[in-house]
Amino acid sequence: MSIPLFLFTYNCGKSAEDICSDAGSTAYSNFVDNLFANIPGSKASGDHAKLYVFAFQELCSVLNGSFPGIVGPKLSKLGDIILDVLRSKHGHDVDFTLITKAHIGAIGLLVISDSPQNIKSIRKADSSCGYFRSSLKGGCGVRLTLTHEDDETEFTFVSCHLNANEGTEKYNRRNQDFYDIVRSMDFGDEWSVLKPDSHCFIMGDLNYRATANIFKTDSSTTKDQAESAADTLLLTSFKNLEEVDELTCARNANQVFWGFDEAPIKFRPTYKFFEGTAKYNSKRIPSWCDRILYQSYKSPVEDVGSSSSTDLPVPSSDKILPPVKVISYSSIPEISLSDHKPVYLSINVPFNAPKSVIDSQGLLISRQKSQGSLILKPTVWDKQFNRRFTYTADTLIGYGLWGTCTLKGRLLFFLVLVAVLLFIDSL
């Protein structure tokens, strides 16, 4: 038995507020119409996924993202819109239901199923890796159990937004962000993102750039440098991604995404565009920032990290064991609400989870012999302190922005200042 899945990730550049504000708006139509056109299946065929997972980054402004009470309702509204799209696509007789949502900062995750009665044991987790442990960057995840007759299998889905910009320092920061997230997410079952006997999908604006081996660059890249590199990049064959794509290089070097696969990339870079267009902005080198990866269904696990297991650049059906079937891995360039383009993956996976890449203690198996142990389970620090640091940082950032960037905030600040001055004067 195989399970059809549809996964979608989009850095919407704060446009979620526009999508949700008015069903007659241009933003709403641009998102809904093009999402409808790219979701596989139809009413006539009766084909639809068992689970639909939508990951979003930059759902709203940094100010609003600092307050979970603001983000949650916006994400729910977005879920209602997506449910309408699915029902229009496949018919109202299919019981599409928003199973759960998770969010941290402006990062969100929605899970929809056609059979809610077969979903149980839902757990959620999050982790932040922004400045001062704020949720400006980080990830959120959902873990659930899917039942079928007398059997069941577990899935873990994660939406990530890693640190941005070009250069070696930023590249290393992204690698560290990835490690922090997959180690520190606490699902309350003693496991983080990776768990034995669980399917795992990680998606989002991973922010890896196509600057590897082109030239050394940093956040101060000049316009001429960026345009020159962009010209070189866009002439590059998709089969040569290992020469330019940071994420592919990092995976080949066994630095990140240990034991994960990615379907062959056959779409153009998804970043950076002028909003509302399909034209690249030369301020940044065009890159495949938006990605969807899944824990490998290959065997044996000892091959994880070898060149044969990181086959992103070269399509090869014999390297993916049946019944894994990638239906489509592509972008939706017509959705033009931000400087990113969304990416989706339609895939059929086996009912049984892939072989684990970590042992019973949470240690990465492929690293134990040659490179020293690497633990991928939440630590005491993660469980007891990370959330407190994130809450404190987000609160300070949120109220700081509210006090300086909003009329009410500035007015309150002025009144408090006047009151303080009057009090001092009365002494």
TrEMBL record:
Signal peptide positions (record): none
Pfam (any one): Exo_endo_phos2
Name of the protein this chain belongs to: Phosphoinositide 5-phosphatase
GO biological process: phosphatidylinositol dephosphorylation
Family matches, as PANTHER family: INOSITOL 5-PHOSPHATASE, LD06095P
Inositol polyphosphate-related phosphatase domain ranges (all copies): 1-355
An example molecular function term from Gene Ontology annotations: phosphatidylinositol-4,5-bisphosphate 5-phosphatase activity
Record Gene3D superfamilies: Endonuclease/exonuclease/phosphatase (3.60.10.10)
